[in-house]
Amino acid sequence: MTTSATDDLWGEAGPGSRRILEAALTAFAARGYHGASTRDIAAAAGMSPSAVYAHHRTKEDLLYAISLAGHRSALAAVERALAEEVTAVGRLRALVHDYTAWHARHHQLARVVQYELGALAPDHRDEILRLRRRTEEVVLDEIVAGIASGAFRTEDPDGVALAVLSLGVDVSRWYAPGGHHTPVSLGRRYATLVLAMLGTDHRSATAG
Amino acid sequence: MTTSATDDLWGEAGPGSRRILEAALTAFAARGYHGASTRDIAAAAGMSPSAVYAHHRTKEDLLYAISLAGHRSALAAVERALAEEVTAVGRLRALVHDYTAWHARHHQLARVVQYELGALAPDHRDEILRLRRRTEEVVLDEIVAGIASGAFRTEDPDGVALAVLSLGVDVSRWYAPGGHHTPVSLGRRYATLVLAMLGTDHRSATAG
């Protein structure tokens, strides 16, 4: 399971663009997409509005760049988790653990990306929804494979997949660093609960 | 299990106040608390800003009234669910069903109430947090009682309580009427998954 919090969200963006994206993320998280102005974002980035427009022509374009980065990073976390595990139980445990921990570590990013989906332009929203569907498919495929191999037992694989994704995403709503929970403690906890949902008890889950 | 969608959210508020609360809820859901102005809300309610101020002195006061109504209604739904059931399995099934269905039915209200908590004044936030803790206690008490009676088996009652609340609340993020899911289908689905988490399989859950 990957525990690094330093994965690079912004890809090949240069230093100026990164400063703007970070400022936009902070502003959207604090005041919502509609409550944050490009002027606020420029001020927070220590730039003029025209310097911001040189990188991102509209506020929506900033939200799109943030949404794309967030969804790609969450999908990559899931794919990395699976790459290191072989058994059905080990793979699902790693997947739930890392998906949950990702949403705790990136709680501010995840909130913006999830809650402001309605503010994206239609073509941008479609692209983000394709990434979401890909993540959903990865989760469902693991559950279905585990049922086929006899490792899991459930009459509702779609429901379990929905619960895995929903539990992970919702961590970003209430998680605060320095509290009772950590990304790793939440990841372990939800992995154990999901394996129980799949009829795999704690002992066999540990052994698997 | 209660399936009525007509429970009265606004209590003893008069017709003018109701119209303002409904308009504020719609505006907060569409543009976020910071993105919606009192002027927008007055226009949506078909009133002058001064008429709105006569009922609610500030925008924060509107959010507080909406948050109080939402949290009271969700807690009442949970308490009504329990009032009709006797067995541990029956009670938990009804609780999860009705809490989940409440968040589907009142998805717009639940989103505002959950996502804008940070915008409340400290004393208002404290009052809302007390209502949340009361709801959390009701859920945890049911799980602990079911473990004590031998109906449930889990090493992590706090984790299951957290999952019950989180799965319910998160429905409000993605639920849309007219789609694949209904409040009742989601309620049934999550109740079955939670009972599986508690080591109660589908057949005994139905019989219980």
TrEMBL record, chains A, B:
InterPro entries: Homeodomain-like_sf, HTH-type_TetR-like_transc_reg, HTH_TetR, KstR2_TetR_C, Tet_transcr_reg_TetR-rel_C_sf. The keyword Cell inner membrane does not apply. Residues 14-74 form the HTH tetR-type domain. Residues 37-56 bind DNA. It holds the Pfam family TetR_N. The keyword DNA-binding applies. PROSITE patterns: HTH_TETR_2. Keywords: DNA-binding. PANTHER family: HTH-TYPE TRANSCRIPTIONAL REGULATOR RUTR, HTH-TYPE TRANSCRIPTIONAL REPRESSOR BDCR. This is TetR family transcriptional regulator. It comes from Streptomyces akebiae.
